[in-house]
Amino acid sequence: MSVLSKFKTIAVAGVATLAVIAGAQASDTIKIGSVLSVTGPASFLGDPEEKTLKLYVDKINAEGGIGGKKIELIVYDAGVDANKARTFATRLVEEDEVVAVVGGSTTGTTMAMIPVFEEAEVPFISLGGAVVIVDPVKKFTFKTPHTDKMACEKIFEDMKAKGLTKIAMISGTGGFGKSMRGQCLGVKDNYGIEVVADETYGPKDSDMTPQLTNIKGAAGVQAVLNAGFGQGPAIVTRNFNQIGITVPLYQSHGVASKKYIELAGDAAEGVRLPASALLVADKLDDSDAQKKVVTAYKADYEKATGQSVSTFGGHAYDGLYLLVDAIKKAGSAEPEAIRDALEQTKGFMGTAGEVNMSATDHLGLDLTAFRMLEIKGGDWTLSK
């Protein structure tokens, strides 16, 4: 029997031969893995994710761990290299023998790892954005961020409410941008939206003026939607301002960190986007059900790191605590039991919103979990 086959039948909690199910000899640790984009062009995702996981694993362990067992966190940095991500995923399964994984900063690295974890039957909670991660549903794969399809729907709701029906799109050609473009085109008719110009840019492009000039010259454009993440949207925002486009600019939740505002500078003023309540934690009403969670995470993260909170670290927080909650409810760190408990999650309040999963929904969020924000005075505000 191969190591991988053995993994499918043995609950691994730090030592491959020791189980944590009732009646078995228990080990002292529960091994949890993570593959993130800590460095490279998606470091604005992976860096706060890694910091968050380490911060809260230390906190959980200091408070006694999970049922008296400490968490052993194993983190690998794949950058945005899908091949590296798959290699590290295999290492987590075959060498480190983790019981679950929280990671996958990007859609591209996540999709490369899913086959590894599905074959090994290891629960995987992705931090990537695209809906293709969980649609169609895979047995052992879950995710915490709102999807690109949800972002399209939230943006189109806002546009429709403002009477904006003719729009231009400019999208990145990477995994997330390509996926979101497709999702937006797929749901636009539900909101009476007509796309009158459709441009794209590559991950290494440093000037989107030609594409935006085409958009500026298109007839009847009432708003522009940028589907993308990383430095691309900041460049789009600056070029958008430089060539004097005056219609509203919408971005995706892929720019929901202060880094985007810093890179875009004054050109970010007035940009609208859907994001989690975390970015406006201090502006929420005291009666808001999310306020306690997001304000506590914001305070912990900013005190520990000296950096502004981002929704991306929040995705890691949600993933870790969904996993911890599942282990506690299952009374076991056996992968199959964890998977079953994750799928039965109800009423879990995270930084992204209230999570209610099922056999047909491995995300568990709806559009109410998104807030429409507008950048004013270099900061996030709740849109009116």
Automatic annotation (TrEMBL):
Pfam families for the chain: Peripla_BP_6
Q: Where is the Leucine-binding protein domain?
A: 29-364
**What does UniProt give as the signal peptide span?**
1-26
Does the record bear Lipid metabolism in its keywords? Answer: no
Which GO biological process categories is it annotated with? amino acid transport
> What are the record keywords, sorted?
Amino-acid transport, Signal, Transport
Which InterPro entries does this one have? BCAA_transport (IPR051010), Leu-bd (IPR028081), Leu_Ile_Val-bd (IPR000709), Peripla_BP_I (IPR028082)
Q: Which domain of life is it from?
A: Bacteria
Would I find Kinase among this entry's keywords? Answer: no
| Family label | Belongs to the leucine-binding protein family.
Q: What is this protein called?
A: Amino acid/amide ABC transporter substrate-binding protein, HAAT family
Species of origin reads Cohaesibacter gelatinilyticus
